[in-house]
Amino acid sequence: MHYGAVVNGRRRGLILRVGRDFAARSLCSSSSSSSTPLSDHESFIKDIAKAQPPKHLTELLSIFKARGKSVVSPGAKQGLLPLTIPLVRMSPGSSIALLRWPTARSSMEMPVVEVQKHGVWFLANNVDQFIHRILVEEDVTKPEESSQEIFDAAGEAGKKLYSKGDFAKSRLMDLDVYLLRKVGLFPDSLERKVIRHIENGDHVSALVAAEFYTKRGNFPGFARPFAFNAKVLLKLGRSLEAKDAARGALKSSWWTLGCRYEEMAQIAEYGEEKIVQYKEKVTGEGRKHDIERGKPRAQAYFDEAGLLLDLASLEGTWDESLERVAQCYKEAGLNDMANFVLYRD
Q1: Least enclosed by CB within 10 Å: which of 160, 175, 239, 240?
Q2: InterPro entries per the record (predicted)?
Q3: Which pairs with CB-CB distance under 8 Å and at least 24 residues apart come from 125-130?
């Protein structure tokens, strides 16, 4: 009990100190610059997440406001995967956010994700791609008068990305086909393409499309394509291949699966052994064993942080492991990530 109290007290002190520094820097950047002041989210991304703010983040937030959604503070991370920067709350259990990968370069664009209890769902590679998709869907699915407000909110950035009528001019007729050819790769569009092939009885095309979904570089860091491929293989009676695909999916971060861990573990034919193995690895003994076997100390701590997040995804208990995850990042030499993980309003 005494140990927990000391840790919690230290955590609160760090959070308050980081919060004061963030507020001071935000005020300074707003008052001393002759250019347009940074928004709260842009200041947070620059000062706390130590990343480059997306160029058109303000326009994306304006679009959500036009849709009647309330923008939330970037530090309102309670109960969320700690690697995310919340933008808007969509429903009680769902938020739209940016994902800050732990070892990403500061110039690397952050993907847009939907944050749910057990992890994240990939939405777009970057903010511009997400705005582009929103405008296409508004043009295709909404009457002229109701979609204009969204186009106005997108401003000049929106005009550069998409003009009303571009979808009709393309003569592609299918929204998913247009998105994949003209905007970018999106998991839901690719998955619907596979499902349509299966419904039409074209299993070969379904397998080819599912395999393309998992192609290296399409969705780096995300396990969802491999998890979906495992489900497709199982549905088509290829249980042995499905098991291998599921086991491959579980080698990536569990919070990127796009489904519950248990669902994929069942296809992989794992019992509790994987969870037990991870729990053993996040002990001091487990880390010591890895280092003795030749793993660099910094890498051992970094890997431990990843395992802790995987275990937290099982029940969505992110806040319970914050201290240990942050400490692991510190030991791995990632002090900025440690501060970002701990920060809360």
Answers
A1: 240
A2: PAB (IPR045287)
A3: 125/184, 125/185, 126/54, 127/54, 127/55, 127/56, 127/57, 127/60, 127/98, 128/54, 128/55, 128/56, 128/157, 128/161, 129/183, 129/184, 130/60
